[in-house]
């Protein structure tokens, strides 16, 4: 029986495609969600943060164009947690991607070592 993982991603992103490929190779069924067309709400982002244990700064796509255009590097320090959540929820391209979750665990970004550790495999490791 395969487990379902939701991946909030930007389809043209090669890192997102690699993450989906990795999860499928581990035996997961992947439900893909377009990060711009279905941007997570502030409430959903807070739930993802709570599950991940990450600091909100880790949710920002700091290498993205929108982040630079808005000059967020200098502004984030003075913003409240709720304002940061609202800002992320207002523009999908500000969110670091991909975000993978099964409702209990969350990973932000993609590194194969992290995926192996968190998602392991549905198959019995040989």
From TrEMBL:
SUPFAM superfamilies per record: Thioredoxin-like (SSF52833)
* InterPro entries per record: Arsenate_reductase-like (IPR006660), Thioredoxin-like_sf (IPR036249), Tscrpt_reg_Spx/MgsR (IPR006504)
Question: Which top-rank group of organisms is this from?
Answer: Bacteria
* UniProt family annotation: Belongs to the ArsC family.
Task: Please state what the protein is called.
Answer: Glutaredoxin
Q: Which organism is it from?
A: Paenibacillus oryzae
